[in-house]
Amino acid sequence: MAARRGAGPDRGRYRRFVARHAQPALKDVQESLRETQAKTTLLESRLAESQTQQAALEALYRDLAPSRDEWALTEIEQVLVLASQQLQLAGNVQSALAALQLADSKLQRLDRPQFAPLRRALARDMDRLKAVPFVDVQGLGLRLDQAIASVDALPLALEERLPAPPAPAPPQNEASWRRFLRSVWQDLRQLVRIENLDRPEAPLLSPPQQYFLRENLKLRLLAARFDLLFRDQVNFRADLGAVSAWLKQYFDTRSPQVQSFQTQVKLMQATDMGAEVPDLARSLEAVRLLKLAREKPLR
Predict the structure, then answer these.
(1) In this structure, what are the phi and psi dihedrals at residue 156, rounded to the nearest 5 degrees?
(2) Any bridge partners for residue 251, and if so which?
(3) How far apart are CA 13 and CA 139, in angstroms?
(4) Residue 220: is it exposed, middle or buried by C-beta count within 10 angstroms (0-12/13-18/19+)?
(5) Is there a contact between 147 and 261 (Cβ–Cβ < 8 Å)?
(6) DSSP assignment, residue 251?
(7) Is 230 exposed, middle or buried (0-12, 13-18, 19+ CB in 10 A)?
(8) Of the residues 41, 103, 133, 190, which has the maximum number of CB atoms within 10 A of its CB?
(9) Phi and psi of 75, rounded to 5°?
(10) Residue 286 to residues 81, 106, 125, 184, Cα–Cα distance (Å)
(11) By CB neighbour count within 10 A (0-12 exposed, 13-18 middle, 19+ buried), where does 222 fall?
């Protein structure tokens, strides 16, 4: 009994000691547990948020993938329309061919099986453009510009001047009155010139008429330049033919300048640009059918 009574106070003191020292540790453990739970909850919310963002990005990518194709088709259609206008208005085959090659390279990068009909149409139109005979429009245009700039320097037929014959040397012991008569005779000879013409006599033009003749010649050459841009071979040759006729009628055809000018006009007049320029109707139809097929499911 005495031993039990002695053990009772010791057990109570032990319990009080444990309660006094264990309670702060328990509080620390509980606080750590709450912090861990809070961090876990935060991580779970962030994970859910990232999953939501990933799903949204995947949906956006699915939405943008068709849109990118639609944008590409719209861009290709605009390129083809511009190339078709270049062909119709200016006959610019090289620019149209470059536009078709650009469109085909863009389709090649996209690598979509549904674009195969459009690529076949582009290939056919490119083959047709490559078969058109090449006309150096830029080179011919530069030659016409040079011809226009040189018109003012061309001598007219009535401006021909023959070299004066050398005067004979007077005798050393010639009398003064004979020297005077010789001088008068040489002056009189300069007033009259006799010449055999091997062509119809050129009309006598006043200075205003000479000015308008040169201006009309420039206008004809400028009209030929516009005919060249539109590949109008009939009017191109007609304008250059009128230039050639005026050169023969009004200008000094024995002058090297006029002869060189006539040679250039004949070379340009012989240019063949009568080949029919193809259109791009097949390629335009193919791209518009593709756009229409993509728009139907959205309706």
Answers:
(1) -80, 165
(2) 156
(3) 116
(4) buried
(5) yes
(6) B
(7) middle
(8) 103
(9) -65, -40
(10) 13, 15, 12, 90
(11) middle
Helices (H) and strands (E) in the chain, counts: 9, 0
H or E element at residue 255: none
Query: In the numeric block, which tokens belong to residue 132?
Result: 């058109």
> In sequence order, which residues have a C-beta less than 8 Å from that of residue 269 and are 6 or more positions away?
236, 237, 240, 241, 244
* In the chain, % of residues over pLDDT 70: 75
* Residue that has been written with the tokens 């919310």 in this structure: 45
pLDDT in tens, 162-219: 445 555 666 667 677 777 777 777 766 666 555 555 555 566 778 888 999 999 999 9
In the chain, where the domains are located: 12-132+279-298, 135-157+200-274
pTM attached to this predicted model: 0.52
Among residues 219, 211, 220, which one has the least CA distance to residue 241? 220
How confident is the model over 22-29, as a mean pLDDT? 70
User: Among residues 87, 78, 88, 119, which one has the least CA distance to residue 101?
Assistant: 119
Nearest to 76 by CA among 96, 107, 99, 103: 103
Q: Nearest to residue 89, comparing CAs of 230, 248, 250?
A: 230
Whether the CB-CB separation of 218 and 151 falls below 8 Å is answered with yes
Distance CA 256, CA 237 (A): 23
Rounded CA separation 229/221 (Å):
13
- Gyration radius from the chain CA atoms: 49
**Nearest one of 179, 180, 158, 167 to 250, comparing CA atoms:** 158
At 242, the amino acid letter reads A
Number of alpha carbons in the 13 Å side-chain half-sphere of residue 252: 14
The amino acid at 261: F
Q: Distance between CA atoms of 159 and 153, rounded to whole angstroms?
A: 12
